[in-house]
């Protein structure tokens, strides 16, 4: 009788653990889906406000500012209110303000809406990673790469479905955004109840400032996100203005890079489990470095695209592996370490395109992409130091 009761409880714990894992993946999906659903609305916002590229660029900075304001505070919110409440509230506002951005027709409303939208995006990014670290520790097996893969899946789904709804079915952008908002809210309603009611141990501070080994992890994340942001914004310019590709092929480099990242993240947990964290990170950095050399020096299109693919494969699991590593370090509690690293990573996304643009203007895009290759090499050196201290 007691054995049957124990087996029943074990099955319940297993089922609850699986639902927590699925709910975590669902929140990563919501983050990627919402970000991708916003991208097609940018030209529509510009048209409604009748503004130029310069003003639009400044306006879009509000998303980054909003994220940077909430990221350092999100860990404290998760500790105080729990991952469940924090993610449910942030996800709901994220979805609603996506819809609001389809309607705003004044500069003031646009600034406020973008600040809140960015703030909720940053909060989801941080607290979903806190939830993922805690769930992975409880499961005692690799899960983080698969979690991050769902962000990419959400991004592909959000971008692809908007094209289908507007381009194929002829729906208006407003109706398609209503559908996207409904998908996000429905996902939250299904999975939010299974999120963790707690958010890790408190660290005694409201604002997450990196210290100790967490600082080095943050620098690795900063470089990884800087590289990703630079490829997203500058690969098209590199292909068309430097390598002489037709404008119709401008987005192909980033598409190959993104596809490689998604594939490798879906396979990432099994790969890390088989090969180990250190070989995946250091080997991935080396592969990304060689990929940049191929992009810069490749004499043919095939080798050039192979370079973008190699960068995506090599870079895919560096950030997920290092977020997992935060669960093993002792310098900061998880609730503070994750937002500190996320903030540094997001700084990389914001700084990357601007830094590449400045260097390209002063020298050339060849030199700028060479700098990215050098940063990947520096990333490998820092990663080796982190593993020496943590493992």
UniProtKB/TrEMBL annotation:
It is a multi-pass membrane protein. The keyword Oxidoreductase does not apply. It holds the Pfam family MFS_1. The chain crosses the membrane at residues 26-45, 57-79, 86-108, 114-135, 147-168, 174-196, 208-227, 247-268, 280-298, 304-326, 338-360, 366-387. It is found in: Cell membrane. Residues 214-391 form the Major facilitator superfamily (MFS) profile domain. Its main location: membrane. InterPro entries: MFS, MFS_dom, MFS_trans_sf, MFS_Transporter. This is Putative major facilitator superfamily transporter. It comes from Selenomonas ruminantium subsp. lactilytica (strain NBRC 103574 / TAM6421).
């Amino acid at each position: 009788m007691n054995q049957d009761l124990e087996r029943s409880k074990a099955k319940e714990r297993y089922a609850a653990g699986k639902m927590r894992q699925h709910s975590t993946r669902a929140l990563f999906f919501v983050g990627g889906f919402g970000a991708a659903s916003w991208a097609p609305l940018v030209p529509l916002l510009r048209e409604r406000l009748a503004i130029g590229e310069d003003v639009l660029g400044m306006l879009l900075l509000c998303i980054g500012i909003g994220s940077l304001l909430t990221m350092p505070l999100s860990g404290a919110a998760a500790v105080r209110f729990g991952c469940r409440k924090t993610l449910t509230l942030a996800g709901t506002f994220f979805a609603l303000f996506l819809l609001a951005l389809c309607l705003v027709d004044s500069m003031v409303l646009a600034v406020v809406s973008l600040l809140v939208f960015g703030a909720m995006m940053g909060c989801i990014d941080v607290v979903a990673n806190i939830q993922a670290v805690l769930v992975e520790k409880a499961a005692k097996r690799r899960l983080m790469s698969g979690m991050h893969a769902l962000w990419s899946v959400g991004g592909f789904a959000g971008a692809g479905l908007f094209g289908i709804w507007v381009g194929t079915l002829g729906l208006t952008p407003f109706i398609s955004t209503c559908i996207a908002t409904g998908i996000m809210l429905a996902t939250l309603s299904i999975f939010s109840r299974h999120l963790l009611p707690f958010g890790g141990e408190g660290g005694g501070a409201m604002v997450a400032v990196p210290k100790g080994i967490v600082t080095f992890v943050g620098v690795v994340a900063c470089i990884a996100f800087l590289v990703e942001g630079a490829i997203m914004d500058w690969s098209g310019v590199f292909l068309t203005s430097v390598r002489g590709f037709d404008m119709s092929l401008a987005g192909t480099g980033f598409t190959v890079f993104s596809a490689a990242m998604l594939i490798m993240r879906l396979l990432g947990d099994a790969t890390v489990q088989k090969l180990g964290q250190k070989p995946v990170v250091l080997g991935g950095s080396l592969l990304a470095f060689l990929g940049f050399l191929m992009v810069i020096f490749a004499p043919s299109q095939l080798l050039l695209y192979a370079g973008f693919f190699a960068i995506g494969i090599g870079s895919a699991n560096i950030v997920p592996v290092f977020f997992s590593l935060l669960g093993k370090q002792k310098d900061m509690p998880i609730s503070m370490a994750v937002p500190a690293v996320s903030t540094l990573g997001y700084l990389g996304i914001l700084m990357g395109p601007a830094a590449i643009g400045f260097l390209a203007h002063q020298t050339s895009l060849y030199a700028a992409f060479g700098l990215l290759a050098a940063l990947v090499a520096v990333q490998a050196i820092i990663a080796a130091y982190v593993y020496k201290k943590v493992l």
